[in-house]
TrEMBL record:
It comes from Conexibacter woesei (strain DSM 14684 / CCUG 47730 / CIP 108061 / JCM 11494 / NBRC 100937 / ID131577). Gene3D superfamilies: 1.10.1740.10, 3.10.450.50, Winged helix-like DNA-binding domain superfamily/Winged helix DNA-binding domain. Pfam families: Sigma70_r2, Sigma70_r4_2, SnoaL_2. GO terms for molecular function: DNA binding; sigma factor activity. It comes from the Bacteria. This is RNA polymerase, sigma-24 subunit, ECF subfamily. Keywords: Sigma factor, Transcription, Transcription regulation. Residues 171-269 form the SnoaL-like domain. Residues 100-152 form the RNA polymerase sigma factor 70 region 4 type domain. InterPro entries: ECF_Sigma-70_Domain, NTF2-like_dom_sf, RNA_pol_sigma-70_dom, RNA_pol_sigma-70_ECF, RNA_pol_sigma70_r2, RNA_pol_sigma70_r4_t2, RNA_pol_sigma_r2, RNA_pol_sigma_r3/r4-like. Residues 6-65 form the RNA polymerase sigma-70 region domain.
Length: 299
């Protein structure tokens, strides 16, 4: 990987964690790289780029707050999807900070709180570096971080420590979902498991989170019956570093992305993204799941 690719990768990693949106992150990355290209005498290009990306992302979050507060239904991040054929041992060590569950929790934080937490926990910046990026004192950054951690600590996600056990359980869960096996799904779900759906008012999605293994299992079996009428196929993928499922229609167009959080040998939380606006960066999106009258997103 050459230096430009490394810089782009770093910029996207910061911007995506800050924004939870692949599209918005790409816009920030483009602007930040342009500023880096135009700047003269930059000695530490990583530091320069991280600073610009973080500050641009703070501005985006401030302007997006009203839009997200009026969002229809539950809000989930735009997913990042990878094929699952890579070596488990080669996965990134910081996948917790890019998980759908963690990014969703970050929505509770103000822009500067989010910036300080991301830089500290995802990129291991020290307080002097963080202070320089956000334009605050080191002591103030310590206070901001402490406050941010308190705001999310109670619901901070837990993940299976052994990736292989996690993936094996996720594979059994996918098999049960493919069969519409309610009993099999119940056996794999935690008693207090949660299913969150994000349709954004444009696609058919559950109106509010479902809680409880039996209720979720019945809902998933119902979704599978509907998918059968569309010729849907469920494919295993990695979603934001965690096991997941990609559903495509008979023409190979994307219907939904499901993230699966596993801990203590059970599926703890499911994140279902069906809003077409949040899937277009992954390829052609099906119009089968759209609400009547909704327009499919442009690819």
């Amino acid at each position: 990987m050459d230096e430009n690719e490394q810089l782009r990768g770093l910029a996207f990693a910061v911007a995506y964690r800050m924004l939870g949106s692949a599209a918005e992150a790409e816009d920030v990355v483009q602007e930040a790289l342009l500023r880096l290209h135009q700047a003269a005498g930059v000695e530490n290009r990583d530091a320069f780029l991280t600073t610009v990306v973080t500050r641009l992302s703070i501005d985006v979050l401030r302007s997006a707050r009203v839009r997200r507060e009026t969002y229809v239904g539950a809000w989930l991040p735009e997913p990042l999807v990878e094929e699952t054929e890579r070596d488990v041992a080669g996965r990134v060590e910081d996948e917790e900070t890019i998980s759908l569950a963690f990014l969703t929790l970050l929505e509770r934080l103000g822009p500067e709180e989010r910036a300080v937490l991301v830089l500290r926990e995802a990129f291991d910046y020290d307080y002097r570096e963080i202070a320089r990026v956000v334009g605050r004192s080191e002591e103030n950054c310590r206070q901001i971080l402490s406050r941010a951690r308190r705001r999310i600590e109670a619901e901070r996600p837990r993940f299976e420590a052994d990736p292989r056990e996690r993936d094996e359980l996720a594979a059994r869960f996918l098999a049960a979902a493919r069969e519409g096996d309610v009993d099999g799904l119940v056996a794999l779900l935690a008693d207090d498991a949660v299913l969150v759906g994000d349709g954004g008012g444009k696609a058919r999605a559950i109106p509010r989170p479902l809680v409880g293994a039996a209720q979720i299992a019945r809902a998933l079996a119902g979704f599978r019956r509907i998918g059968d009428t569309w010729g849907a196929e469920l494919q295993p993928v990695l979603v934001n570093g965690q096991p997941g499922v990609r559903a495509v229609d008979a023409d190979g167009r994307l219907l939904s992305v499901l993230g699966i959080d596993v801990a203590d040998g059970r599926v703890q939380r499911l994140h279902s993204i069906v809003n077409p606006d949040k899937l277009t960066h992954l390829g052609p999106v099906s119009d089968r799941a759209l609400r009547p009258g909704a327009e499919p997103s442009a690819p």
